[in-house]
Amino acid sequence: MAADTSQSVAKAAGDDVENDVAARGRSRRTDSDPTDRGGKGASGLRRALATHWYAWAMVAPVVLVLGVIIGWPLVRGIYLSLTDANERNVSRTIGVRHIEATYEFVGLDNYVAVLGDPVFLQRLVWTVMWTVACVSITFTLGLALANMLNRDFRGRAAYRMALILPWAVPGFVSVFAWRFLFNRDNGILNKILDGGGIAAIPWLDDPTWAKFSVVAVNVWLGVPFMMVALLGGLQSIPGELYEAAEMDGASAWQRFRHITLPGLRAVSMTVILLSTIWTFNMFPVIFLLTRGGPGDSTEILVTQAFREAFVSSPRDFAGSATWGVLILALLMIFALVYRRSLRKQGEVW
């Protein structure tokens, strides 16, 4: 009886093994069949479209608009950068007479000319210095203010509103207000200095002071965004971590270093990236405050591109497009390097 039972168990086990092997063989044949896999992919796509058609319908207008206002100008700009287009050879209409375009394809000549021009290196160096200075100061001040506003004290809501005010005011209005403040003869800042017996400072007339002024204005405009973003990050950190650290005898600096900074890492990486891109392309502050002057001391890459297209004579559309494409390439390289560094640190972005 025992022998029959053992034989039955062995036979059942053998049948299970054979069935498992057969199932694996069918699975391999199915996976190795490209036609079937393609059919499954197509059916999966159709199923996704049928299931989420409403989402696709809602997204389609946005994609179309972005393609029109971003995709087409980008493609057009890249094309113009490969030509010798300027205001003398583009198509134009004078009265009732239409003149056809006569510009020609020149390949990478514009890129060779711009990259070989010492002006490009000068603009690039100052743009990098301007970006690093603005982002670092903005982040430091935003973090300090966020830490202050994350505590309970009387009038906290009023302080928050006052610190967010620069963000609510349109940028060009703020820049013009600062331009009046920096006026050498009638500006409030120099009036205050004069009252204290200090000589007037040429805020916008001296290259060094002009650079300081544009950085100060851009920091003033950028601090509210940085503060709000970091304040949201601070409020997402569990308070129990601070209580436990305080009970263990950790100092304020140790709590800030080992709890606050790691807790803000994800938010910090995002706002630093956004702030870098915005500052790198911050045209209004430079153009409205100093017009790139005095001389060309505060010109950055994006204002140089504007100058090529709208100020130079003849207006060099191909040169301006070349500067624009190079700016895009630099920002893309920065974003890729930034992303790789985050992935090495274990951040998912």
UniProtKB/TrEMBL annotation:
Family membership: Belongs to the binding-protein-dependent transport system permease family.
Record protein name field: Arabinogalactan oligomer/maltooligosaccharide transport system permease protein
Occurrences of domain ABC transmembrane type-1 (ranges): 124-338
Source species, domain of life: Bacteria
Membrane topology summary: Multi-pass membrane protein
Chain residue ranges for the region called Disordered: 1-43
PROSITE patterns: ABC_TM1
Localisation per UniProt entry: Cell membrane
Keywords: Cell membrane, Membrane, Transmembrane, Transmembrane helix, Transport
InterPro entries the record matches: MetI-like, MetI-like_sf, UgpAE/MalFG_permease
Skewed-composition ranges (Basic and acidic residues): 28-39
Annotated source species: Streptomyces avidinii
Residue stretches spanning the membrane: 53-75, 124-146, 158-181, 212-234, 264-289, 317-338
SUPFAM superfamilies in the record: MetI-like
